[in-house]
Structures are given as structure tokens and as C-alpha cells.
Amino acid sequence: MKGKNKTKSEKKRSLREEKILEIKKKLIRQKEALLSEAGDALNTLPDETLFPELGDQASAEIDRNFMLRLKGRERQLLKKIDEAIEKIDSGTYGICEVCGEEINIKRLEARPVTTMCIECKTEQEEEEKLRER
């Protein structure tokens, strides 16, 4: 019969699993809020109205394009949220896609849709900066 005393690594593992379940709940709430906001925003999206003044027409078009761009970002975030929830369900959440190491739980709590540990993300951003030059 196994004793009731958990090893230090078992306690650490179960604490991490609990935190990941909390993150999943947070992701689900965020997804529901985004879907609700998206529905409201679609109902208030300005129509493609023709204005007699060219300046008014241009202004209305800029507003509409801005709203549509926001929707695109929200769509991307929803996709990332769905992917994170899928990974939690499959047991692969919190593993860096680049190096394969566990992502620090504090990073996951701060940025639940992340797919990289801080070291790999920092390296990626530095490489992007070099390419921009």
C-alpha cells in the first residue's frame, strides 16, 4: 500500500495542474466575453452608407475598416484561446513549442495563450528586430 505522503515533485506537479485548470477557466471566460462582444459589435458595425461629401464618405470608411481590423485581431485571439484549451485537454499545454521545456507557470498565468518559454520568445523577438534593420 502506498503512503499518503506525496513527494516534493508530486506536490509541485499537482499544484501546476491546479493552476492550469484555473487558467483553463480563465480562458473559457475570456472566450465567452470575446464572443459576446463580437456579437454586439457586429450589430453596431456602421453600414456602407454613401455620403454626399467625399470627406464624410472617407471618414465613415476609415471607421468601418478600423472596426473590421479589430474583429480580425479578436478572431486571432479566439483561435489562440481554442488552441490553448485543446492543449490543456490533451495534456500538452505549457510545453514550449521550440525547446520542449515546461513554460514557467507565472508566464502561463500572465499570458495563457503563449506557446513559448520566455527564453525562446526573447530569442525570437531579438531575431525579428535584427531582420527589421
Walk me through this protein's architecture.
There is one protein chain. The chain has 133 residues and is mainly α. The chain folds into two domains: 8-92, DksA, coiled-coil domain (Four Helix Bundle (Hemerythrin (Met), subunit A)), CATH 1.20.120; 94-133, no CATH class. It is 71% helix and 0% strand. The chain is built from four helices and no strands. It has helices at 8-44, 54-90, 105-110, 118-132. α1 (8-44) packs antiparallel against α2 (54-90). The N and C termini lie far apart (64 Å). The model has no long low-confidence stretch (mean pLDDT 83).
Give the uncertain stretches in residue-range form.
Answer: none
Q: Using only CA atoms, what is the Rg?
A: 22 Å
Count of helical regions = 4
The N- and C-terminal alpha carbons lie at a distance of 64 Å
- Report on the biggest sheet: none
CATH topology of the largest domain: Four Helix Bundle (Hemerythrin (Met), subunit A)
Elements, N to C (H/E): HHHH
How many structural domains are formed by the residues? 2
Oligomer: single chain
Helical percentage:
over 70%
Tell me the β content.
under 5%
CATH architecture of the largest domain: Up-down Bundle
Assigned CATH superfamily of the largest domain: DksA, coiled-coil domain
* Average pLDDT metric: 83
Which terms summarize this structure?
mainly alpha, 133 residues, 0% strand, Four Helix Bundle (Hemerythrin (Met), subunit A)
